[in-house]
Amino acid sequence: MNIYIRSMIAGFVATVVLSLLMLMKGMMGLMPELDVISMLGKMAHDMMGMGGAGLAWLIHFMIGTVLWGILFALLYEKLPGGGAVTKGMSFGALAWLLMMILPMPMAGAGLFGMNLGMMAPVMTLVLHLIFGAVLGFVFRALSPSAVHA
Known about the structure:
By secondary structure, the protein is an all-alpha fold. It has one domain (about 5-145). It has helices at about 5-25, 35-50, 55-75, 85-100, 105, 120-140, 145. It is globular and about 45 Å long.
C-alpha cells in the first residue's frame, strides 16, 4: 500500500478517535467553551461566508486525514521516538503546537487558547497526544512489514 494512502487511513482513524473523545467531552459538560467544531464553523463563516456544523466537521476530518496524515508520512523518519506510536505522539505534540499558535488565536481563543482558561492547552495537548498515538499505531499496523510479520 502506498505510504500516503496508509498515512491518510491512519489520519482518518485517529481523527475518528479524536472526534469521539471531543463528543464525549461535550456530553460530560467538560469545558463547553472549548468547542473546536464551533470554532471551525465560525472561522469558515468569517473566511468564506459560509459555515455550519457540517462544514466544520468536514474541515476537521480533512485536516486530520489529509493534512496531518500526509505530513506524518513526510516527517516520519525525522520525528523523535523509537517506534511508530512514540513518533506519532511527537507528531501530535507538533500538531498541537501549530494549532495553539495559528488557528486558536484566529478563532478568538488567544495564543495557546488561554482566553478559554488554563485547562484549554492542557486538554488539547492530551487529545493531540492520543491522536498521535492512534495515528502511529494504525500507520505501523498498515505497514507491509506488519502485515507479513
